[in-house]
Amino acid sequence: MISSRQLEYFQAVARELHFTRAAAALRIAQPALSQQIRKLERQLGLVLFERNNHRVELTPAGTALLEHAERILSDLTAVEEDMLGWAGGVRGRIRLGAARGLMLQLARVLAGFCRTYPAVEIELSELNTQEMIAGLHMGRLDIATLAEVPAVGERSLSWHRLGEEPLVLVTGPDAAFAGRTSIAIAELDGHDLVVYPTGSAVGAIITATLATAEVWVRARFESRDYTTARALASVGLAAAIMPASVAEAAGPPIAIVRLEPEPVWTPTLARSATRRPTPAQTAFTTYLVGHPEFTDTGSIGDISID
């Protein structure tokens, strides 16, 4: 039978794709790690890694095992943290995925939560919505603040809408549209725009909005970061569209212009519906949903958050 230790060793190599780095992360000797991986391969009768002098790659069997390993190790961690919670007080670790457009509000929520629950460790990752949904499915994340509501019929996630917020146009103080309070989407036709990469829910909303209006824009720059997009817009290199709260935050001088019709994004709290939440996870979801930083719409997804 495969042990959890073997899965931990395998997972480390699969993530690093490098035996020396994986051994350092595990704090064991590299020859000992290689021996354990060879033992696991003999036990399964499979080759899990393709090795040569320059790189290590997962085989198809290794990729399949990694999916199982991620889920099993995540479940074991959840069991341990659940029992610790029953043993006395709320404690444990929460692997939290965060949409970049929510970082200002989320930082203030985390400050209060960490004061209230000092024994809970937060492991924070800034990711796009596609990455977070994949992380929830694979067991790499416990909770995520998505930039959109999950797809209709998504039964593997529990989710709760945190509200809605308009997306606004940001330009330099002396750039086109700077003197306007609002413009029609159609007026963006032919203009330069900062775009967001594939996987960004806000980027997808912007693309759909422009397509509906039959507007063509030139993708002058691509950025994963709203701060970068805002900086590029502030000096007139290209306009950018982003959540209003991000545009209104402190930073270089800009002009903020409303769009008509007004696109909106829907911040959403999500977790796996197939794994029982730990006391720490339940405490966090309850704390965040009830926090004044977010407008609770009361709209619950396919399965409500406890």
TrEMBL record:
GO CC annotations on file: protein-DNA complex
Gene Ontology molecular function terms on file: DNA binding; DNA-binding transcription factor activity
Keywords linked to the UniProt accession: Activator, DNA-binding, Transcription, Transcription regulation
Entry keyword Transcription regulation: yes
HTH lysR-type domain span: 2-59
SUPFAM superfamilies noted in UniProt: Periplasmic binding protein-like II, Winged helix' DNA-binding domain
Top-level division of the source organism's lineage: Bacteria
CDD domains on file: PBP2_LTTR_substrate (cd05466)
Family per record: Belongs to the LysR transcriptional regulatory family.
Protein name: DNA-binding transcriptional LysR family regulator
Taxonomic lineage: Bacteria, Bacillati, Actinomycetota, Actinomycetes, Mycobacteriales
